[in-house]
Amino acid sequence: MTLKIHGIARSRAFRALWVAEEAGVPYEHIPTDSKSGAKQPEFLALNPNGRIPAIEDGSFVLFESLAITLYLAKRYSSGKLYPVRLEDEARAWQWSLWGATEIETPLIEMVSNRVVLPPAERNESVAAAAEAKLPRPLAVLDAHLAKPPYLLGETFTVADLNIAALLYSAWYNKIDLSRWPRMTAWLDRCLTRPGAQRARKLREA
Ligand SMILES: N[C@@H](CCC(=O)N[C@@H](CS)C(=O)NCC(=O)O)C(=O)O
């Protein structure tokens, strides 16, 4: 049965769409929106949190975007997107959990309140407080990338995909990230890959 990815592309479902494109796995995209679609009983049966994304891979159901990317990479792209060595796998988890806990919330708060929300709904003090939390973790990422090209070494993996996907909105909305030049060069590399471009088309169209 075809993999089903639930969630509009202009959401965290982008991460699942991107990994599916990179892995070359056929999928059906069901563009459930977060406000209404994600609150319907059929969707809540997949993700009782009422948030997108969720996937159905045959009879297997999974929510949490970064767990979805790790699962899809391991299932459909082991040895390419998903590292084989135990230590590299652990590093992929390290970076993914780091992304979710250290940078995701401040990035969303900053970009939403500077660019994405309608001007009347933006709150500059929330944006500024969020921005202040970013230099410490982004300096860590930038320093790690002193040894390019990718987070785990020579090849692009799900670790890069997860972190680049978290930074996508700042990158796309041209937030100034020039203080972290190695990170921005790496981000350009990740987000202009053919697989990334195919996934981006779904949300930038
Ligand atoms: N930690 C979850 C967060 C999912 C999430 O918050 N998704 C947003 C869209 S990007 C959503 O569905 N928001 C609607 C809501 O919170 O009610 C994940 O990464 O999958």
Overall pLDDT level:
98
Count of strand segments: 4
Roughly what fraction of the amino acids lie in strands? 5-15%
**Main pleated-sheet profile:** 4 strands, mixed
Radius of gyration: 17 Å
The first-to-last residue Cα distance is: 28 Å
Order of strands in the sheet with the most strands?
Answer: 2-1-3-4
The string of secondary-structure elements, in order, is: EHEHEEHHHHHHH
Percentage of residues in helical conformation: 55-70%
Instruction: Give the overall shape.
Output: globular
Class per helix and strand makeup:
alpha+beta
Uncertain spans, ≥5 residues at pLDDT below 50?
Answer: none
Distinct small molecules bound, one entry per kind: glutathione
How many helices? The count is 9
Brief write-up:
With 205 residues, this protein is of the alpha+beta class. Helix content is 56%, strand content 8%.
Question: What features would you describe in this structure?
Answer:
The mean pLDDT is 98. The chain has a four-stranded mixed sheet, with helices on one face. The protein has helices at 13-23, 41-44, 65-76, 86-116, 124-132, 135-144, 158-172, 181-191, 194-204, and strands at 3-6, 27-30, 54-57, 60-63. The protein has 205 residues and is α+β, with helices and mostly antiparallel strands. It contains nine helices and four strands, in the order βαβαββααααααα.
